[in-house]
Amino acid sequence: MSFFADLAHQFIDGEWRAGSGSWDIIDFNPYDQEKLASVTVAGVDQVDEAYRAAERAQRDWAATSPYTRRPVFERLLRIIEEREDEIVEALVLELGGTRAKAGYEVRLTKEFVREAIQLALRPEGHILPSPVDGKENRVYRRPVGVIGVISPFNFPFLITMKSVAPALALGNAVVIKPNQNTPIVGGGLIAALFRDAGLPAGLLNVVITDIAEVGDALIAHPVPKVISFAGSDKVGRHIAAVSAGHFKRVILELSGNSALIVLDDADIDYAVDAAVFSRFIYQGQVCTAANRVLLDRSVEAEFTEKFVARVAALRTGDPRDPRTQIGPLINSFQAEALTALVDRALAEGATALLRGRTHGNLVEPSVLTGLPADSGIHLQEIFGPVVVLVPFDGEDEAVRLANDSPYGLSGAVHTGNVERGARFAQRIETGMIHINDGTVQDEPLVAFGGEKYSGLGRLNGESTVEAFTTQKWVSIQHGRTEFPF
After folding, report:
1. pTM value > 0.85
2. 121 pLDDT exceeds 90?
3. Contact of 248 with 270, CB cutoff 8 Å
4. Burial status of residue 267 (CB atoms within 10 A of its CB: 0-12, 13-18, 19 or more)
5. Which of 115, 287, 364, 395 is labelled catalytic?
6. Residue 6 class from Cβ within 10 Å (0-12 exposed, 13-18 middle, 19+ buried)?
7. Hey, is 239 helix, strand or coil?
8. Separation in Å, CA 184 to CA 147, 159, 200, 307
């Protein structure tokens, strides 16, 4: 398709370029394996060129009035709105997500761009008192400089944009490294939109490459001061270690193992609705998805019957079909790994209330129960349409089960008493938890991030200002300091 072919290049210093690396990334439609594009990877030399271009352009951009910067993002929003159908189509083809999922991603991206328009004016300085006579303390908030953004495949347009747009609005420059599975919607498309919105050349660069080609050049390079990464905790730990060795700040949105908890006074039909969405949106390939549904024994039978019936009715197939609710996993490796995980669970003694079949990258939903308490599956992120139902007796056991995980990203609790839910939520070791709602949530003003192995730092609203700016202390002595020697 020409849309993909036109954007299948490196974007450095305002120019589309062929990659200088030694091999090609082939971009496939995960549903039918149609080749969408091929991209020669960027080499280490192009990573350096991208960062140096960003460094040069950022100096003038940071000195520009935020009122001058703001119209770029106003135009960007209009362009996204004008091209929304085209963007949705691209997301469906490259990710294998349904049209409903793609539409949700674009709508939320627009909200983050709207917030970036305001964010350009958000940073404020302070004048602070001093214990020294005649002294004035001014604290300025300044952009950090250049930011490296390494984005995932599952929400590539949204998650990339929610770092890129505010970082640029705050006076920084950016280099994006999109995921290999989504090089266009997570990279080239974003570059083209900003270019058309009038962003000066060099401020946004895209390098499509892989660690096999460039090693740690993206994170060890001396120019970027912050690395914003969303992906697995395994890769996140490596990025954190390398970044720390070079005194770089990191924002890490990593793996999750979220629990949706149904207490004994919950609205069962509504909890079923929330759980189906929380587990199966984008085939469960979402870090905030509900891997585990914890059920008070008093409601276990009713919930399970209704939940399994709802899941069994989900339609798996071509994501281009508006009736499809479950599309393909992103690639054959993920499909095979998920099928093996279900086989392992059954071998360990679990019962499949619903056992989905695997057809290529299409994996039908599975609902498991009776998994032994010591199974490692309880502790891992399940990146696909498989859910584990776990009964509990009373709130204390529910808290113990929810917290028995190395991850702490999101969660939800359903109850007929919201204050009971609020008290319960305070006991869960997670960065985010939602009362009487789903686990998959993101909003422009509310801090987004996890605890434990689910990441470091926060984004959105004031958290984004903290992430992509730094503070500078300038003191003025209006009188004369008396020095002790």
Report:
1. yes
2. no
3. no
4. middle
5. 287
6. middle
7. helix
8. 20, 14, 21, 36
Q: Is 348 a catalytic residue?
A: no
Q: Is the pLDDT reported for residue 452 higher than 90?
A: yes
- Name every residue whose Cβ is closer than 8 Å to that of residue 485 and which is 6 or more positions away in sequence: none
Residues 346-376 pLDDT 10s = 999 999 999 999 999 999 999 999 999 999 9
Give the integer Cα–Cα distance in Å for 360 and 5.
25
3-state secondary structure of 296: strand
Q: Which of 94, 115, 253, 395 is catalytic?
A: 253
What string of DSSP letters covers 62-106? Answer: HHS-HHHHHHHHHHHHHHHHHTHHHHHHHHHHHH---HHHHHHHH
Q: What is the pLDDT of residues 236-259, one digit of tens each?
A: 999 999 999 999 999 999 999 999
370: left (phi over 0), alpha (psi -120 to 50) or beta: left
DSSP 8-state code for residue 145: S
Backbone angles phi, psi at 37, to 5 degrees: -170, 165
Q: Rounded mean pLDDT of 451-473?
A: 96
Residue type, 165: A
**287 among known catalytic residues:** yes
User: Are 116 and 166 in contact, with CB atoms under 8 Å apart?
Assistant: yes
Is pLDDT of 136 > 90? yes
**Phi (first) and psi of residue 328, to 5 degrees:** -80, 155
- The b/e string for 375-407 (b: 16+ C-beta within 10 A; e otherwise) is bebbeebbbbbbbbbbbbeebeebbebbeebeb
